[in-house]
Specification:
Blueprint lengths: L2 H58 L6 H71 L29 H14 L1
């Protein structure tokens, strides 16, 4: 895969993960708002029931200061508090799950970037290796000579010893060689 297509793929992945992260954060906020709404609804229901119970108690002639009435109200208040605590726990669980998913999306985006960098390095390494292999395969006779156009003594040649030619031939050969490289 070319480096340009790898970069474009990374950008698409990062956009996807960023969108997922925003969606999960929005989901977490929605959980928080939903739980607040349910808490308010439950408190309103409790207050309405409290008012109804007081009215019924007053109609029936029971004093509002009696121990049985106080126990009844305390029981209702305890039920309401447990309900609200359960709602908060459920909301917190949903919110944490959504935030965990958002964190996972962010980590996936970072992993995609690291994967891109690794793939680019692999592409560059493979390209360099291919160029090196090609240079070995297509090495020119120029590499057999030193700076003064003499056969280099430290290299073993697989070619026969060159025939002495006119220096202008060497110059033309070097110009051709320079164009090849």
């Amino acid at each position: 895969m070319s480096m340009q297509s790898q970069k474009q793929s990374l950008q698409y992945q990062q956009m996807q993960y960023a969108m997922q992260e925003r969606q999960f954060k929005a989901e977490a906020d929605a959980y928080a708002l939903e739980i607040k709404d349910k808490e308010l609804t439950r408190k309103q229901k409790f207050n309405q029931e409290l008012s109804e119970n007081r009215a019924l108690m007053a109609q029936s002639g029971i004093t509002l200061d009696s121990p049985s009435y106080r126990a009844f109200l305390k029981s209702n208040r305890d039920v309401m508090k447990r309900d609200i605590q359960s709602l908060r726990t459920m909301g917190l669980e949903g919110r944490l799950n959504a935030l965990y998913n958002a964190q996972q999306a962010k980590l996936s985006s970072s992993a995609a970037k690291i994967n891109y960098q690794t793939n680019v390095m692999n592409t560059l390494t493979n390209t360099a290796s291919n160029v090196f292999d090609l240079s070995k395969e297509f090495s020119t006779s120029r590499s057999l000579f030193d700076k003064n156009n003499n056969l280099s003594s430290n290299k073993k040649s697989i070619y026969p010893k060159p025939v002495r030619r006119d220096p202008s031939d060497y110059l033309a050969m070097m110009k051709r060689t320079a164009r090849i490289e």
